[in-house]
Amino acid sequence: MEFDHNNLVVRASVSGIWIGQLLGPGELVIAGQSIEQRTFVVETEQWNAVRQGDEESLKDILEFELNDEFAKLRGFGTESGYWCEIGVSLPKVCFALR
Which residues of 74-90 are buried (b: 16+ CB within 10 A; e: fewer)? Predict the structure, then answer.
């Protein structure tokens, strides 16, 4: 998973994705107006914002939510193991098959 804050893009290599039908493997690219990540910390039962540049990749994208206002990718962080949510506002989504 890659975070490009200069171009406001999130890229993720995936083994498959469901967009009306099963597709994959390929690369999911989401561009938008802003990128934010937050992590749910079980010990405090609170969401913590993750600073730009400190984002962590998801082990797997377990949930993907998309509408005109935002795209959200959710899963467990590769380093912390905490539940993470990556949000992209006003998204434009592209999926390229490998």
Answer: bbebeeeebbbbbbbee
